[in-house]
UniProtKB/TrEMBL annotation:
Protein name: Threonine synthase
The enzyme's E.C. designation: 4.2.3.1
UniProtKB keywords: Amino-acid biosynthesis, Lyase, Pyridoxal phosphate, Threonine biosynthesis
GO MF entry, a single one: threonine synthase activity
Pfam families named among the record's database cross-references: PALP, THR4_C, Thr_synth_N
PTM-bearing positions, type N6-(pyridoxal phosphate)lysine: K114
Pathway membership, UniProt: Amino-acid biosynthesis; L-threonine biosynthesis; L-threonine from L-aspartate: step 5/5
Reactions catalysed, as given in the entry: O-phospho-L-homoserine + H2O = L-threonine + phosphate
Cofactor(s) named in the record: pyridoxal 5'-phosphate
Keyword RNA-binding: no
Length: 466
């Protein structure tokens, strides 16, 4: 499989999976997309019903890694990646109400769905870097979940140095401790005096400094990396198979921020999975719902909410869907993205918008509605949902159709957001055994100002120590 940018034509020496894994973003600023969509036949889907989760993941992903990583190696990595999950099914389905299911994606080490892709990504990086005899430095900014998942996936790996910036005092205590109590030598946590945007700007600044970027071999594991999307497709296939696919349709509801998770569901649909509708759940940062309602994709200031992992205005992965809805025309896609950056408003052509609406629905819940949803799912079904999951379930409930199972992505464990869960339900969610002593563990992190040269010096020193 070869890859192309959403802003450029397929080139003669187009990159393969290993190349785009290390590169992340395309050179022209676009996002990588597979050259074609692999198709899964109904017969193949039936055969996959009996596979374990890791083996199914390898089958689903194999066409994307073709020509770069062979199937047996990939299967080995998948088995290893999901062995540490604390549920035998890896991503179990739980029926919350008749016809409404929670697909629990939070049974990995850091209790959020990011582990589903990141645990595999750490192993893929290791494999490709060993093959190429290289070392890279992963630098990332986090508002909480991505950082901990990346650190957990990359800890102790010789060929990776990891530097994660988090906004000082602005992540939850659980989120911070999940990062700062990992004491492996290749991990450096930096608390930045500023907010999440400050952290993200610093990371962008480091990538923009070409000399520095080459000197330390910068790389990224943020959600625009195609490998992460690819690793999120298998659980949609698994859930649909469990509910009767290919002989019955299924719909999904996904609490959405950067549009990566729901895009993976859309990719599964492209590959032949019988998905009827995709429902996007948002918090008060509702750019996507406004878009689906009125074709109004205009940026506003980000406001904090009970579901911080969705406090986002620009959903980077939306560009991939836009590209498809423009019939893969990179020139039009690049022009629309350029205008969006300049004006803060994305002018999506009416026919592209109409085509998106044929599949997508959107629903917004503010903090009060989110708390009410948490309370009701608990009192009516004894299902304890974190704020993100509650938004997904509420969106699923709203758009559920008779006879078609609706599956909501449960993206975080309730214990990851204990205060919001307690305020809504009166229940204290307990951390699972492997994190029970989180608050007794030693923390290690450096506090720094938002000055980029100091930060670059810290990255260099960290690599020398490694
Ligand atoms: C990252 C995250 C989301 C948003 O997922 P996207 O792929 O960015 O849309 C939702 N819920 C939780 C708990 C997350 O960590």
């Amino acid at each position: 499989m070869r890859y192309r940018s959403t802003r450029g034509e397929l080139t003669a020496n187009a990159p393969n999976f290993s190349d785009i894994l290390l590169a992340g973003l395309a050179g022209d600023g676009g996002l990588y997309m597979p050259e074609t969509w692999p198709k899964i036949s109904a017969q193949t889907l039936r055969e996959w019903r009996s596979l374990s989760y890791p083996d199914l993941a390898a089958e689903v992903m194999a066409p994307f890694t073709a020509g770069a990583i062979d199937r047996d190696t990939l299967r080995g990595m998948c088995r290893d990646a999901y062995a540490g999950f604390d549920h035998a099914a890896v991503a179990p389905l739980c029926e919350v109400e008749e016809g409404l299911f929670a697909l629990e994606l939070f049974h990995g080490p850091t209790l959020a769905f990011k582990d589903m892709a990141m645990q595999l990504l750490g192993r893929l990086f290791d494999h490709v870097l060993t093959e190429r005899n290289r070392h890279v430095t992963i630098v990332g900014a986090t508002s909480g979940d991505t950082g901990s998942a990346a650190i957990e996936a990359c800890r102790g790996r010789d060929r990776l140095s990891v530097v994660i910036l988090h906004p000082k005092g602005r992540t939850s205590d659980v989120q911070r401790r999940q990062m700062t109590t990992i004491l492996d030598e290749n991990i450096l946590n930096i608390a930045v005096e500023g907010d999440f945007d400050t952290c993200q700007d610093l990371v962008k600044g480091m990538f923009a400094d070409k000399e520095f970027r080459d000197e330390v071999s910068l790389s990224a594991v943020n959600s625009i990396n195609w490998a992460r999307i690819a690793a999120q497709i298998p659980y949609y296939v698994r859930a649909a198979l469990a509910l009767g696919a290919p002989d019955r349709e299924v719909s999904f509801a996904v609490p959405t921020g950067n549009f990566g998770n729901v895009l993976a569901a859309w990719a599964a649909r492209q590959m032949g999975l019988p998905i009827k509708r995709l429902c996007v759940g948002s918090n008060r940062n509702d750019i996507l719902t406004r878009f689906l309602l009125d074709n109004d994709m205009s940026m506003r200031a980000v406001e904090p909410s009970l579901s911080p992992s969705m406090d986002i205005q620009v959903s980077s992965n939306f560009e991939r869907l836009l590209f498809e809805m423009l019939d893969r025309n990179p020139t039009r896609c690049a022009a629309i993205m350029r205008e969006f950056r300049e004006t803060g408003r994305m002018a999506v052509p009416h026919d592209a918008w109409t085509r998106m609406k044929e599949v997508f629905d959107g629903m917004t819940l503010d903090d009060t509605q989110t708390s009410v949803a948490m309370r009701e799912f608990y009192s009516e079904s004894l299902y304890l949902a974190d704020p993100h999951t509650a938004i997904g379930l509420a969106a699923g409930k709203r758009f559920k159709e008779a006879g078609i199972p609706m599956v909501a992505a449960a993206t975080a464990h309730p214990a990851k957001f204990p205060d919001a869960v307690f305020a809504a339900t009166g229940i204290r969610a307990e951390l699972p055994p492997h994190l029970a002593d989180l608050f007794e563990r030693e923390e290690r992190y450096t506090t720094m100002s938002s000055e980029i040269s100091g930060l670059q010096a810290a990255v260099r020193a960290h690599i020398r120590r490694n």
